[in-house]
């Protein structure tokens, strides 16, 4: 009897072994090629990627398909191009993407969730291969759009236990705790913090919360904050430190970044305060500036390029259907300088 209307058997899912056999390479070589890491020539990587796409290789039901987009374009959203921090993260990402045959398009949001949403809407209309966002605090509509999309999404620079898709960053609260722990061990009793306008940078607010947590444990509940208007980091650090010294009399000031800390050191100098005898100063990020100051700055070293490379590699794995850890928190390093 004819079975013309019967449903044909479901095709067997392609395995990584099938891709390796077709390409005449090892499974490890296929994995490395799909993740965009070193050890595979560009010619062989391109050949393996082509075979994987031809075979519709998707190793598990949670993988976002190799053929999700018809583009080799990765969209990257950064808060700003100013300074070294995001430039170094971007450098790590772009070099990794270029090795894997992907291009990138970049936009800046100036820390605005609304601007990020507008950019995500526009980017999705271009059908990119993947999306990268800075931080984990987004407009609700951005969450909804990207959660509903099959595109791989990477969040960088911060961390969350529930990322949109993938996350590679640092724990800013714990970084603040490390600063607070160092300050208390050095005997500082009256800390203060120079930041940005409230709500502008939630990562800085998380570090402040970490400092306050440590001081709260020793009975100090007052950690004043100066929030100068948006301007150059050097000027903001100078103004913020001057305000705190005149109004709060702290014995140590922690700054949003090293550039602000330099401005704060100039404020101390103009007010006749000796560092670290009269005032302790702590920065953040361990930028190049920190190593050329008259006194080596006490700061936190962040793994910026490593973050970019790791995030890009994980995103490439996700694009190509390779199982990958969703949430990676990279360690930071406390750098004890001569300003505390």
UniProtKB/TrEMBL annotation:
It holds the Pfam family Peripla_BP_1. It comes from Litoreibacter meonggei. Keywords: DNA-binding, Transcription, Transcription regulation. GO terms for molecular function: DNA-binding transcription factor activity; transcription cis-regulatory region binding. Transmembrane segments: none annotated. CDD domains: HTH_LacI, PBP1_GntR. This is LacI family transcriptional regulator. Residues 14-68 form the HTH lacI-type domain.
